[in-house]
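Subject: design request, 948 residues
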């Protein structure tokens, strides 16, 4: 039988190593111990120093210095101590590892209090002060409920034990034998109560269980008790009340059985009770999804394989179906076999947190499975992202721990555990389907993305909750706009999640704007106050100067300057924070307040009272009716996508009707191309296209300088709201076979993998844009296979497996094929030249177009050309076009950058009227085939004249 003193010392040493493995709390060097020889074959045991290995013995030696033993006696006792088995050492370590963070903090605070009093030990009485100082756990709350205050306890402790001469800051402070017994008893109590951790309430109960403990006496003195029994009568009920604050039990009633208590102590540490949340009304209502919910109820009612798993894209509402099941159970709208069940959402991340050693996770999960299995199938576990079960908790390698999926398989197979899972389709295939034993235990339920009509119904059902949160109202048009604009402009997410987020952010935006308006009103009142005070100071200063009181006038001047500074700062703040679009209501308030001030100044008080009443009416209406409008939703979508607000909110028909005239103002002489593009866009927006394909696909043919790229820029600006919404790819960079992969991204194992493709990454970041493939005929033939898929399916998959949608893009390809035919026609070979008649010119253009089409058919494959909406052949420039006042003959040219650090940029701007073309160009017929040299000639002539 091991001596009690030896057992205490061993527990203290191992516990200290477990609690403070880094020994950072105590800056004491290790104490070398004599290590007598031993042999396991002879039945000997290793000495304490060998058993503890590399663990610091500083705290163990300190624990040995307990009262009433002397340090020498403690040292000899510790040197003679031996551990008989590895199991004993592991058990001691496990006991101290089970201390909760709050209880460990209480021990450290007790050590701090001992140091403050100058003592070199920690007794049970100091543990009481440490528990009280911790302030958060149940032991502290119990003492406070009993009427014990921290400062009073510290004063009473000082009175009881006095002050000592030790307690140096870096000195080690050991525990007394009494304190060690308290900690051991606390660990035993927690095990008897089936608690996972040793809390401060267990330490407090252990202190109260010892009549002669100084801790019990300290509490008794504080409460005025005459005996330990009286002290326990006052404190133990408070401990029980504090312990019941956070209960680990879930009340259930089995079908056909009497009410009872089902202990789920371990489970509730890592789970959320959705049924209780439904009873409290804190869950959002489930709108729709009747088919999936009814199938869930049928699967849960089966005898075997009764574990449904929701499979669908992120954001379609898989988890909300499980919440809807909890609401159905609370409402009683389920079969009798499900009415008394509890739905608990298990958090795997919380289950994994803090599992430092092998086997910790398995112990936690087995405890959860045991409690749920013993509930007589009255608990349904909901595991979101159920694919994370595969591999969760496994340490890897040979002999590693089992993962969560393998731990759950037996319980799922025997029907002891009912589980509802949720995962995406890709992750279900990647993780669940690869494990047939796990897959056959689940019944998949597909959850598709809802339609726009269904999403609108979902938002209407959720709107009251968001209205209460934001304290405003949603217009019906705003709800419809949330669904419509999110579906049209946000392509990388799914309904109804993206529409709910748009509606939520629109409410937050309006509430923030209202706060800014209220702040502006306060600033306006402060401004008027400062202005009146300045006017009063100005009058007083004038009076002081008139009375030759210059000292007072100087003081008033300084005060006036101070107020002017404050006023300027306030005005600047108001201008900076002024909310955009305050509307007619703000303007009405401003005018009413101005009229009130005028009426008061003119002493028309009756009129001022009437105006003040009108102001209150406006403010009351403003406070009572705060609405989220369609414009607010459009601004949120604009902020998400980068599309101009007016483009989002404007109707498509109005924009497309004006598109042809807008493009015709910028691109001169190419009315055929402009009309073809506008017609194709109107057809696309009328719904006469495959919704998965790009909005439209065009091929622009013609020689250089006739306006192909310029039309793309204007089309991007007019249709998408910004010239920056154009993604330009020079296809001459993709002439080699190995460069084709740059479009989608380098494959795994090659340089550049993970950086994304040139095309796919640009469209993924800006999905609403114009994609220009410049000089597409120069690209490698393999590029056209990728373009063929883009035009046909409207999507591409990059090297990382991400699908990029092109359904909201305009695809434009330019080509110089047929340039010879155009130049030949411009020179008169096809009947087209300067001075020809209009009908002859039209016939010649038709001949040019046919020649270009034939040349394109000989170069491109038929299936590629058939997927283009329009092939636009640009007319060659004529004399009338080049002399047109609307033509942009001289493009904007920025002044040259400074060549040196001391040189300044010249802010000259060159403007040349259209007559300059005729003056500088000379024979315009020579420039028709390529107008670029004409532009350079104009610049050379004008710039040379400016230099002189």
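Subject: RE: design request

Done. Sequence follows.
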């Amino acid at each position: 039988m091991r001596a009690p003193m030896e057992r205490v010392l061993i527990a203290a040493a191992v516990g200290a190593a477990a609690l403070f493995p880094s020994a950072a709390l105590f800056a004491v060097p290790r104490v070398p111990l004599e290590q007598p020889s031993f042999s396991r074959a002879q039945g000997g045991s290793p000495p304490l120093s060998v058993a503890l290995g590399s663990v610091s013995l500083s705290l163990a030696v300190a624990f040995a210095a307990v009262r009433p033993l002397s340090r020498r006696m403690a040292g000899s006792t510790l040197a003679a101590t031996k551990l008989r088995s590895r199991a004993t050492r592991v058990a001691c370590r496990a006991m101290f590892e089970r201390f909760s963070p709050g209880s460990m903090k209480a021990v450290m605070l007790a050590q701090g209090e001992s140091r403050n009093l100058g003592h070199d030990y920690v007794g049970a009485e100091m543990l009481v002060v440490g528990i009280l100082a911790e302030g958060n756990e149940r032991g502290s709350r119990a003492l406070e409920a009993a009427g014990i205050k921290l400062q009073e306890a510290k004063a009473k402790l000082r009175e009881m034990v006095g002050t000592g001469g030790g307690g140096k800051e870096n000195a080690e402070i050991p525990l007394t034998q009494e304190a060690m017994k308290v900690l051991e008893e606390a660990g035993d109590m927690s095990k008897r109560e089936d608690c996972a951790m040793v809390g401060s309430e267990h330490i407090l109960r252990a202190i109260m269980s010892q009549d002669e403990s100084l801790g019990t006496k300290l509490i008794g003195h504080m409460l005025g008790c005459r005996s330990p029994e009286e002290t326990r009568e006052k404190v133990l009920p408070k401990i029980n009340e504090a312990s019941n604050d956070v209960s680990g039990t879930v009340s259930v009633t089995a079908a056909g059985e009497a009410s009872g208590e089902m202990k789920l102590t371990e489970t509730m540490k890592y789970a959320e009770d959705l049924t209780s949340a439904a009873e409290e009304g804190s869950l959002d209502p489930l709108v729709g999804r009747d088919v999936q919910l009814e199938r869930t109820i049928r699967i849960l009612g089966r005898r075997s394989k009764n574990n449904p798993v929701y499979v669908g894209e992120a954001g379609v509402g898989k988890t909300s179906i499980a919440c809807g099941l909890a609401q159905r159970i609370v409402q009683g709208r389920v079969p009798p076999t499900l009415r008394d069940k509890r739905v608990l959402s298990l958090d795997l991340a919380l289950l994994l947190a803090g599992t430092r050693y092998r086997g910790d996770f398995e112990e936690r999960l087995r405890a959860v499975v045991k409690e749920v299995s013993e509930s007589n199938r009255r608990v349904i576990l909901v595991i979101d992202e159920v694919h994370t079960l595969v591999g969760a908790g496994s340490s890897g390698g040979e002999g590693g721990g089992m993962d969560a999926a393998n731990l759950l398989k037996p319980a799922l197979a025997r029907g002891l555990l009912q589980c509802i899972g949720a995962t995406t389709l890709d992750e279900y295939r990647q993780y669940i389907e690869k494990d047939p034993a796990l897959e056959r235990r689940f019944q998949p339920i597909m959850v598709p993305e809802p339609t726009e009509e269904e999403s609108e119904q979902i938002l209407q059902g959720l709107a009251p909750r968001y209205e209460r949160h934001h304290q405003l109202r949603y217009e019906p048009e705003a709800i419809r706009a949330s669904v419509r604009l999110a579906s049209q402009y946000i392509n990388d997410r799914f309904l109804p999640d993206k529409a709910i987020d748009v509606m939520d952010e629109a409410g937050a935006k309006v509430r923030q704007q209202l706060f800014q308006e209220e702040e502006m009103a306060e600033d306006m009142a402060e401004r008027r106050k400062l202005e009146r005070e300045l006017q009063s100071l100005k009058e007083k200063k004038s009076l002081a100067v008139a009375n030759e009181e210059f000292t007072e006038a100087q003081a008033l001047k300084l005060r006036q300057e101070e107020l002017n500074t404050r006023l300027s700062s306030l005005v600047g703040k108001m201008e900076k924070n002024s909310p955009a679009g305050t509307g007619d209501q703000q303007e009405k308030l401003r005018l009413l307040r101005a009229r009130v001030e005028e009426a008061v100044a003119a002493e028309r008080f009756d009129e001022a009272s009437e105006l003040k009443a009108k102001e209150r009416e406006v403010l009351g209406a403003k406070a009572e009716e705060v609405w989220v409008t369609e414009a607010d939703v459009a601004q949120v979508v604009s902020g998400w996508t980068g599309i101009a607000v007016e483009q989002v909110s404007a109707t498509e028909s109005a924009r497309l009707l004006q598109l042809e005239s807008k493009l015709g103002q910028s691109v001169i002489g190419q009315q055929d191309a402009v009309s073809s593009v506008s017609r194709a866009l109107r057809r696309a927006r009328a719904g006469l296209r495959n919704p998965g394909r790009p909005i439209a696909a065009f091929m622009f043919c013609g020689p250089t300088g006739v306006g192909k790229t310029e039309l793309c820029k204007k089309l991007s600006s007019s249709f998408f709201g910004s010239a920056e919404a154009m993604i330009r790819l020079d296809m001459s960079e993709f002439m080699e076979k190995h460069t084709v992969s740059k479009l989608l991204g380098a494959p795994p194992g090659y340089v550049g993998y993970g950086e994304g493709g040139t095309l796919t990454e640009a469209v993924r970041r800006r999905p609403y844009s114009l994609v220009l493939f410049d000089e597409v005929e120069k690209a490698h033939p393999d590029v056209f296979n990728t373009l063929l898929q883009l035009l046909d399916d409207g999507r591409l998959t990059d090297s990382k497996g991400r699908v990029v949608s092109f359904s909201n893009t305009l695809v434009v390809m330019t080509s110089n094929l047929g340039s010879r035919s155009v130049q030949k026609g411009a020179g008169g070979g096809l009947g087209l030249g300067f001075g020809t008649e209009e009908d002859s010119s039209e016939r010649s253009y038709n001949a040019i177009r046919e020649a270009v089409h034939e040349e394109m058919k000989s170069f491109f494959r038929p299936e590629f050309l058939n997927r283009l909406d329009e092939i636009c052949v640009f007319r060659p420039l004529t004399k009338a076009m080049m002399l047109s006042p609307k033509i942009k003959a001289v493009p904007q040219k920025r002044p040259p950058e400074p060549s040196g650090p001391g040189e300044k940029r010249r802010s000259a701007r060159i403007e040349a009227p259209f007559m300059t073309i005729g003056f500088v160009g000379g024979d315009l017929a020579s420039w028709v085939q390529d107008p670029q040299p004409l532009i350079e000639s104009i610049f050379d002539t004008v710039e040379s004249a400016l230099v002189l």
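Residues 651-876 form a domain with the Rossmann fold fold (CATH 3.40.50.300).
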